[in-house]
Amino acid sequence: MGKVASMGSxxxxxxxxxxxxxxxxxxxxxxxxxxxxxxxxxxxxxxELVQKPREIGEVRDALLAEYxxxxxxxxxxxxxxxxxxxGEGLVEVTDL
Length: 96
What we know:
Order of helices and strands: EEEEHEHHE
Number of domains: 1
Structural class: alpha+beta
Number of helices: 3
Low-confidence stretches: none
Shape: globular
CATH topology: Outer Surface Protein A, domain 3
Number of strands: 6
Strand content: 25-35%
Distance between the termini: 15 Å
Largest sheet: 3 strands, antiparallel
CATH class: Alpha Beta
């Protein structure tokens, strides 16, 4: 942790968790701490996209193609979500 996520950063779901899609949302269990996390429908789509390493910009582009949202807001909200997930150890962010 400690890196600053940007559109050029690569993000991938961390290894030490399991998840399940439930009614369009996602429940994630952190196996290290036993803590559950929940993501709404848009967060669930982000989670689906980061199961393989991707640039955050690619995730943003997919969201812009699928949802009716302002590009600046999408980018800001996506970075906030990625940083929150990283802070909980649920994703890994790297700059290549």
